[in-house]
Amino acid sequence: MAQLAGKAQAAAARPQQVILVLGDSLSAEYGLARGTGWVALLEKRLAQEKIAATVVNASVSGETTSGGRSRLAALLAQHRPSQVVIELGGNDALRGLPLKNTEENLSWMVQTAQKAGAKVLLVGIQVPPNYGADYTRRFAATFAAVAKAHKVGLVPFFLKGVADGPDPTRLFQPDRIHPRAEAHPQMLANVWPELQKLLR
Known about the structure:
The protein is an alpha/beta fold and 200 residues long. It contains seven helices and five strands. The protein has one domain: SGNH hydrolase (Rossmann fold), CATH 3.40.50.1110.
């Protein structure tokens, strides 16, 4: 009994973890009912797993890596996260922004979060092949290169099992860009194994 009480006290003494999610519309519940996106599902998963953590969703629809970069320092100062999930880059590709800029912005955000004492998870996005095979390949490789350079966790393809199925449009809203609510449990399933490694 005393041993159990000791464990409970140790758990209570452990500081609450704060997970900051810095993303775009894929994480901001664009076109979805509140509470049905993957970040909201993450909060429920943490509760089920009895992991003491608060989730701060700082995602903004339409956000680019440069937008995330401009907001990150203030978010780190305000929330002091123990983990930072960076899910940005898709809008860079949609706007045809230079890959070099995307890579530099992602690297800067990763390093800044690390300097603030946070563990970082980079969430990779892939763009449709209509951008050209070379651009598609180089864009996907950007996330792996940044993760390797700074030794951080990586989700290789956020929409695995959503965008690469036999009928990919089935899981997307009519704009064919934003996943439906039914796809978000799979998106969380893609993130969870890597995020779990960063949780105490």
